[in-house]
Amino acid sequence: MVPPLPEKVLRPGPAAMLERRVGFCALILVALGLASPGAFAVSTLQSERVVGAATSAATVGIDYVRSEEFGAKFGLKAQRSPDGKKLTLQSPWTTIILERGSREIAHNTLRVFLGEAVREQRGHFLLSRIDAEKTLVPLLVPGHGLGAGKGATAPQRETVPKLKTIVIDPGHGGADPGKVNARLGVNEKTMTLDTAKRLQSLLEVRGYRVLLTRTADVALDKDKNTDLRARAHFANSAQADLFISLHYNAVGGSEATLQRVRGAEVYTLTPQYQHSSSDHERQDSKAAAIALPGNAHDHWSMVIAHEVHRALVHNVGFVDRGLKRARFAVLREVDCPALLVEAGFLSHDEEARKIATPEYRQQIAEALATGIVLYDAALEAARRRRPRLAH
């Protein structure tokens, strides 16, 4: 029997509490009449286009906002690094570090990947408007600013989702073993199913209704594409409030590469008009132009992904490989907030040996449960805050 998650594991730590104070401070300012609700809206920021010498194929048609002005709306002061290559947006509880020309930022020491690289123009660091709305706002004040960006729907503007039914998707199964470490006799499909069952037990004792897309070593369909879509459709049929797909990773290459690459990655669906984290050459413009069903939940998917990402890195001690974006098949058609977790590399022998132990998989499951419970707390906080911050 899987033991219940200790209460102390689920209690937000000092970092989590401090991080949410930005939303509390915004609420206080509105309540005191020192700022209007619209003052915190990214939509009020003036758009810029990259022009002149800084123009490239990667910047054409993209709306940007000045990072300093964005930060100021959330109480973050801007400070450049001595070499001018980085800009820090900081408050007593939040630190965001931007680097010129990079899609990677640091948010309270955690790695987060943007859809567009940070640009510099006329002495200002520029963030794409979509990144500001779809990535940074959910991290700063969950539930704030919904409906401000492209593709937003009326339900996004009006509601904060509930969290009662959770669907856990153990990756692979049946004839598809997923990633395999042949030397150690460890395969992904077995590890994901065990981890999913552990997570299910931890969540059920908290009162959630939890369903698994598979409960045995089977595939949902012999055809791989149909199998992946069936997992999303399973969640939709169950009217899931959250979908989490569990995986273990692997990398190819030389032995040195296999034993170097390790850690956890967390993915959410790439927003419309943006390129996935792995699409460095921006080749998939056709897919980027399409609004997928899962994009209706971009905001809350980022919130849950952040909470899970933080719990995996801080509670388990994973090497942080980042919070990333991808158009994975299991995420595209899910009609609820959704994420995909890669909880370590089976190709890395030391990490694979840990994953092969029940104790370590229990630790991973507890971190996932912690992230989900903190996400639920963020939903409740947003419900309380929303009437005053709505715009």
Automatic annotation (TrEMBL):
**SMART domains assigned to the protein according to its UniProt record, in alphabetical order:** Ami_3
Q: Which GO terms describe its biological process?
A: peptidoglycan catabolic process
What InterPro entries does its record include? MurNAc-LAA_cat, N-acetylmuramoyl_amidase_3
GO CC, one annotated term: outer membrane-bounded periplasmic space
Q: Which GO terms describe its molecular function?
A: N-acetylmuramoyl-L-alanine amidase activity
Write down the species: Cephaloticoccus primus
Question: Which stretches are annotated as coiled coil?
Answer: none
Per its UniProt entry, what is the enzyme's top EC class, as one word?
hydrolase
Catalytic function, reaction form? Hydrolyzes the link between N-acetylmuramoyl residues and L-amino acid residues in certain cell-wall glycopeptides
| Entry-linked PANTHER family | N-ACETYLMURAMOYL-L-ALANINE AMIDASE, N-ACETYLMURAMOYL-L-ALANINE AMIDASE AMIC
Q: What is the lineage of its organism?
A: Bacteria, Pseudomonadati, Verrucomicrobiota, Opitutia, Opitutales
* Name the record gives this protein: N-acetylmuramoyl-L-alanine amidase
Sorted alphabetically, the keyword list is: Hydrolase
User: Which residue range or ranges hold the MurNAc-LAA domain?
Assistant: 232-373
